[in-house]
Amino acid sequence: MQAYSIIGITDSVLRERLAALTGGQRHVREAPVFLVWCADLSRFSDAVQLHGGELTTSTEYFLVATVDAALAAQNAAVAAEAQGLGIVYIGGIRNDMRAVSELLELPPLVYPVFGMCIGVPDEQPDSRPRLPRAAIYSENRYSAEGRLEQLATYDEEYRSYIRSRAGGGRDTTWTQEMKDRVAYPSRKITELLREQGFHFED
Ligand SMILES: Cc1cc2nc3c(=O)[nH]c(=O)nc-3n(C[C@H](O)[C@H](O)[C@H](O)COP(=O)(O)O)c2cc1C
Questions:
Q1: How far does residue 105's CA lie from ligand 1's centre (Å)?
Q2: Going by CA atoms, what residue is nearest to atom 27 of ligand 1?
Q3: Among 9, 59, 125, 181, which residue's CB has the most CB atoms within a 10 Å radius?
Q4: 3-class SS letters over 115-173
Q5: Ligand 1 centroid vs 129 CA: distance in angstroms?
Q6: Residue 38: beta bridge partners?
Q7: Which residues form the Nitroreductase domain (predicted)?
């Protein structure tokens, strides 16, 4: 379905405004390339209409478009990194999705999933440790066996990584970071998505 579109922000005034809307993120303003990755069912809808039909959106189609945008973006990320470039995903583009949608003149059935800064990295940090394989992979059935031990092991690895990466200034673990996250309310996006024509029904 290729249910995604990419908007490259080349206009510096627009870039400033987007940077402000993402909470004043400097890299959004300064990165050589800034892309907005959109989930896009409008092309799908036009194709259906061309043949006399009408698209009724659904939770499934919302998911398809979001997954398409994410897959395309991650392929771009891998391609950029393979050429020695660096990227930063910008979920901050959803802080004020209504303003971003107006600014970019997004039509119905399109919403911004995330932004992406692309540039030349000026640091080469060690790779952030990931959850152990046993925590995310199981065979033939779902398994949460050994979870607490896995989290404890990962927390220690994560703590020492964060300590060294932040120059010793921060002392936290992955589970603590997850706990800190829920102290902030999650972004409110459902109403705007409905306004944009996405329906969460089957
Ligand atoms: C969906 C998504 C949204 C993100 N949003 C932001 C963001 O708005 N601002 C930011 O600085 N980093 C954001 N990040 C994090 C960065 O892209 C990057 O993954 C993070 O800085 C970790 O980098 P590291 O792997 O080099 O440690 C986001 C990551 C993801 C996956």
A1: 25
A2: 128
A3: 9
A4: EEEEECCCCCCCCCCCCCHHHHCCCCCCCCCCHHHHHHHHHHHHHHHHHHHCCCCCCCC
A5: 14
A6: 5, 112
A7: 20-119
Q: Give residues (CB < 6 A) around ligand 1.
A: 22, 25, 88-92, 114, 125, 128
Q: What is the dihedral of CA 4, 117, 197, 187, to 10 degrees?
A: 140
Q: Which residues contact 102 (CB under 8 A, 6 or more apart)?
A: none
| pLDDT tens-digit map of 144-170 | 999 999 999 999 999 999 998 867 678
- Ligand 1 atom at minimal distance to the Cα of residue 23: 8
Task: Give all strands of the β-sheet with 86-90 in edge-to-edge order.
Answer: 4-8, 33-40, 110-119, 86-90
CA of 134 to the centre of ligand 1 (A): 24
In this structure, what token pair is assigned to residue 163?
């300590």
- Specify the pLDDT at position 125: 84
Which pLDDT does position 201 carry in this prediction? 96
Cα–Cα distance between 139 and 158 in angstroms, integer?
Answer: 26
Please name the amino acid found at residue 106: L
- Classified as helix, coil or strand, 114 is strand
Q: How far apart are CA 39 and CA 72, in angstroms?
A: 10
